[in-house]
Design a protein that fits this description.
Blueprint: H1 4-8, H2 16-30, H3 39-56, H4 58-65, H5 106-114, E1 136-142, H6 144-149, E2 153-156, E3 162-165, E4 176-179, E5 193-199, E6 205-208, E7 211-218, H7 220-225, E8 227-231, E9 238-242, E10 251-254, E11 270-276, H8 283-290
Parallel strand pairs: 1-5, 7-11
Antiparallel strand pairs: 2-3, 4-5, 6-7, 8-9, 10-11
Helix pairs in contact: 2-3
């Protein structure tokens, strides 16, 4: 019956964004796939997920804050039926016990406390919770470009239905998404769907945090004289200006062409690293270099101390 605020390490007045941020951080650290040799991490991961599920539900969070349910989501004992001290019957000095004589039967009171009738005094109004159905795990392979642009993904569920899944910002490989009520049916309601995300590797793009990196081949003349060249991005080709006298390794930036940031502040960039591509067997180039005395003018490795 842990306090969900303590479990996530957030203040009681924390906003939704702070709660989500704390959960993502802990879930990433404690995920079972990253702690195969640490069973306690799996237990802690389950506790963190349970705490997040409670605080992420506005109704459950409000009921917990009012003391109506505990950290496991179970109803708490009503007004003094826990031996909390005070006057006989659990009431504090000066407080008046409830009069069930003319204001309706006791089930009305317990309906307000526990969200339903039928509990009676046997067990203080608690209703036996029926088990939910089993969760269903889905594997979803997402193209690199779709992960960066948050393109909706079509997912077929166990019942044969299909949904368009909205991807979260700053999506990472191995992330999991929960689909409430999309699992197997059960007496207490359907379980959840757990979607495991795999981001497909790209043949020339790589990821660097929220940025996308690309090694871009350019010709010798483009590097020396400068040029405007077409560059692929996750959303299609754009034009990029290559400055004059660019060397291999020079990195140019295309702003806002990366992954969406988790904090909603926009997108990362695409970092384009120029790679001068020399033609093989070009006799004219060989003759030119042989007559060009560049090695007599400078040492390009001077800053390496050699």
């Amino acid at each position: 019956m842990a306090d969900p605020y303590t479990t996530l390490g957030v203040a009681r007045d924390a906003g939704e964004a702070d709660i989500k941020k704390a959960y993502r951080k802990l879930a990433k650290e404690l995920h079972p796939d990253r702690n195969t040799d640490n069973p306690k991490a799996a237990e802690r991961f389950s506790q963190v997920t349970q705490a997040y599920d409670l605080l992420n539900d506005k109704d459950k969070r409000a009921r917990f804050d009012r003391g109506e349910i505990d950290g496991d989501g179970n109803p708490t004992a009503p007004f003094g039926f826990g031996g909390g001290g005070g006057a006989p019957g659990g009431f504090r000095p000066g407080e008046q016990p409830f009069d069930f004589g003319g204001a309706g039967d006791a089930s009305d009171l317990f309906e307000g406390l526990f969200g339903g009738r039928g509990g009676g005094f046997g067990g203080f109004g608690r209703r036996q919770q029926q088990p939910k159905g089993a969760n269903v795990v889905y594997s979803l392979s997402v193209p690199f470009e779709d992960a960066a642009t948050l393109a909706p993904q079509r997912l077929r569920l166990a019942d044969g239905k299909t949904i368009d899944l909205k991807l979260p910002a700053s999506l990472e490989n191995g992330a999991q998404m929960r689909l409430a009520g999309r699992g197997q049916p059960g007496p207490g309601g359907a379980g959840d769907g757990i979607v495991k995300i795999e981001i497909q590797p790209h043949r020339f793009f790589t990821r660097d945090g929220d940025n996308v990196r690309l090694d871009l081949p350019v010709s010798l003349s483009e590097a020396v004289l400068g040029a405007s060249v077409r560059v692929p991005t996750v959303e299609g080709a754009v034009m990029l200006t290559v400055p004059k006298n660019s060397t291999s390794g020079k990195t140019l930036r295309l702003r806002g062409r990366g992954f969406h940031k988790a904090d909603g502040s926009g997108r990362g960039d695409q970092l384009v690293t120029l790679m001068v591509d020399l033609p093989a067997g070009d006799e004219a180039l060989v003759e030119f270099v042989q007559g060009w005395k560049d090695h007599d003018k400078r040492n390009p490795r001077g800053n390496l101390g050699v």
